[in-house]
Amino acid sequence: MTGVDPLPAVLAKSPTRRNPTGETLTTHLEATLHAANILARRVGTLACLPQAMASRFWRLAAWAALTHDAGKIAAGFQHMLTHSDARWPNRHEVLSLGFLTHLLEPGDLAWVAVPVATHHRPLFGDGAKVSLQQRYIRLDPARLHEELGHIPAADATALVDWLRSTAARHHLPLCPDPGTVTPQALVADAHRILHQILREWRDADPVDGLAAVLLQGALTASDHISSAVSSVHAHLHTRQPLDHTYPPALRARLTGKGHALFPHQEHAARTSTHMILTAATGFGKTEAALLWSTTNIEHIRSSTQGEPRVFYVLPYLASINAMATRLSSEIGSPDLVGVSHSRAASHHLGASLADRDDIGDTTRIWAARKAVGRAHATRLFRELVRVGTPYQLLRAALAGPVHSGILLDSASSVFILDELHAYDPKRLGFILAAARMWEQLGGRIAVLSATLPTALACLLADTLHTPISTVRATTQSRPRHILHASHETLTDAATLARISEKVSSGQAVLVVANNVRDAIDLYDQLCPEVEARWGAGSAHLLHSRFKRCDRDEIEKTLLRRWKTGTPHHPGLLVATQCVEVSLDLDFDALHTSAAPLEALLQRFGRVNRVGARPPATVTVHAPTWRTRNNALFADGVYDHGAVDPAWTIIRSHDGTPVDDDTTQTWLDAVYATPWGQQWRTDVTIQQRRFATSFLTFDDPFTDRSELEDLFDEMFDGTEAILQADEAEYGRRLSTAPDAAGKLWADDLLVPLPWYGGRLGTWSKALGVRVIDGDYTSRSGLRAIHHRGAHLYQPGEII
Question: Most CB contacts within 10 A, which of 261, 590, 632, 766?
């Protein structure tokens, strides 16, 4: 801020330990305006809006940023900031509306009023947060003035003068000076404007509704960014690292190793439309996607004059963390890649401690504080390249003060959707609906997969309005796998004998079970013999029910022993579906339970990963059909309708090589069954429901907070600690009584499905769910005890 602050005693933020004098109102308003200007340069012109609105959008956003907290001038609000026990039961943003008439022309005022009024509370609704309609609809101007309390006239006049002079310095067009500022007139104007927007926004034109929500997002994002400006990680990146320098750098790197780009990678680099890319595991999908991204970033940049964001979307947390590491290496700096999921701070903590040996409490807390800062910065849209779950982007559909910034940030961006087939029909329908919205917002979309059924490609084509280019890898000169179908189940004694024989002969063998119970049983039976033959650490178990700290160690050990491209060590890995993604592992042979065909093909991809060896045997075993809710499931996990046609195909091709053309034919045959037809119907219904319920923007300011639990349930599951870890969890919390201490403590959490939370108790003192479970660092969670009974069945969770 330039010049002397005319209101040095009027605060926007309370005093804190870091800032004992607090933050003055004028400092905060100008910082928010500065953040809005940075966002304007990053996002650029919003082509999704009518030209008249697009041309003035960022001017309106700047006005909203400059005026949004003007109502904090009220004496009651100021008293609350400096007295921790005081409460002011009103909304400062309502009073902020009154200042607009002293600044803006009527045409601009009508638009700026909406984000100013709604940057903390919804206009309508009866959720946990009282809406502005509920709180103020019955008050006349006199009663509203009484409710808001004393408004210092001199401070109000000084603030209007400062707002007008600041707007002039930033070249914002002003209305003629209306003259004297009085508290009574401010409140009367606030009352009039509030009632005007309550009338106008109950049933909005969808195009206007989208513009208003994007304005709300511009304000809320600017407000949060300005509030975090003191953090070392808070400053927004303003230059996309995936620019024109990436393709020649990649080519030079490959040339130095005696390689060149694959034809499908060159094709992707030339593609400036939406894209579907299919390539076998190990044949450069990631690099192809990044090459495609650089081309489309340049196209979007030239039309918007902004800096497009890149969102790399994956279905599993483990695969997201691995991809973040991969992209950091490709781009050249981990600081340029954001990780966007509910446990992002844990990823940053693990990365910062990965190569350190001197890890004591002090080091961990230091690293945890740094990791918390990185995760918070990503939530504030810091990085221009981000890896995350679709959940984080889908939350934009909830709009409102918390999530509308996500919608704005996703405009004019590049989206890479990896392994799209992995989602169930409801989640997939939601993602497809969002993809249409991303396209409407000016985005480009690429779908990557080793195994993409034609039915899904058709759904994507039906979803998007502009053309989609199909890029298919044709790089394999010979099959990587020979298929074998076994009528014995994975847990049969004869199967165990064959696995043992292969390990004894010096092979690295991967065994994939469909549920945790089977995986643990197999590991218990095979591990002693394997380790007796090849030594301690030659047999491992991996599933999704390990403490974070234990799983991290297991994955590091696996990569040291079986990373693709390194010399192989004999041994055994028994795993569940979690091995299908993320880990860059390579084995000599596979034994797996029958599963949906896409899952099987992903499992095949962990064997002879890059085809450097002669074709390896992949053995698929007959499923055990179990009844659940009057329906059949393979090993209690996978729907009969998805597994049975895959198992039929596997049996009919026993002893044959597996290549890409063959597997595509198999996939399409599965999706041509009645199950596949029902799958398409289910996806389409969910897509339509999500679009009509959330993405029409004809009722954009009604509270949707009650739907947040639904999103949590669909995408995040839950977590708990063991009773045996309660004391250590509490010790870690107390070692650093802030977010860093909780992050360190959360290393002890065990992931559970959403329903698993009911099998424990909530510790109010620790703020975490606690379970009584059987657990070891080598086998993970075996059972949960509840009320003296074994209610938890390991076979029910993946």
Answer: 590
pLDDT band at 672 (very low <50, low <70, confident <90, very high): very high
Pick the CATH number of 246-472 from 3.30.70.260, 1.20.200.10, 3.90.1150.10, 3.40.50.300: 3.40.50.300
Place of tokens 């990896």: 418
Smallest CA-to-CA distance from 32 within 73, 71, 72, 66 is with 66
The answer to whether 211 and 701 are in contact (CB under 8 A) is: no
pLDDT tens digits, one per residue of 684-696: 999 999 998 888 8
| Correct CATH for 11-227 of 1.10.3210, 2.60.120, 1.10.1030, 3.80.10 | 1.10.3210
Which letter, b or e, does each residue of 362-400 get, where b requires 16 or more Cβ atoms within 10 Å of its Cβ? eebbebbbbbbbbbbbbebbbbbbbbbbbbbbbbbbbbb
Q: What is the pLDDT of residues 401-460, one digit of tens each?
A: 888 999 999 999 999 999 888 888 999 999 999 999 999 999 999 999 887 899 999 999
Sign of CA dihedral 685, 686, 689, 692: negative
Range 481-658: architecture per CATH: 3-Layer(aba) Sandwich (3.40)
Structure tokens belonging to residue 269:
């680099």
How far is the C-alpha of 53 from the C-alpha of 139, rounded, in Å? Answer: 33
The pLDDT value given to residue 343 = 55
Task: Check: CB of residue 390 under 8 Å from CB of residue 343.
Answer: no
Cβ distance 416 to 293 under 8 Å?
yes
Q: Where are the domains of the chain?
A: 11-227, 246-472, 481-658, 717-796
Residue for token pair 């389409």: 684
Taking residue 143's Cβ as centre, other Cβ atoms within 10 Å add up to 13
What does the buried/exposed string (b/e) look like for 540-573 if buried means 16 or more CB atoms within 10 Å of the residue's CB?
A: bbbbbbbbbbbbbebbeebeebbebeeeeebbbb
pLDDT surpassing 80 at residue 56: yes
Burial 469-483, CB ≥16 within 10 A → b, else e: bebebeebeebbbbb
E-strand spans in 328-466?
Answer: 337-340, 385-388, 414-418, 444-449
The string of DSSP letters for 573-635 reads: EEE-GGGGSS--B-BSEEEEE---HHHHHHHHTTBSTTS-SSPEEEEEEE--EEEETTEEEET
Same fold flag, 11-227 and 481-658: no
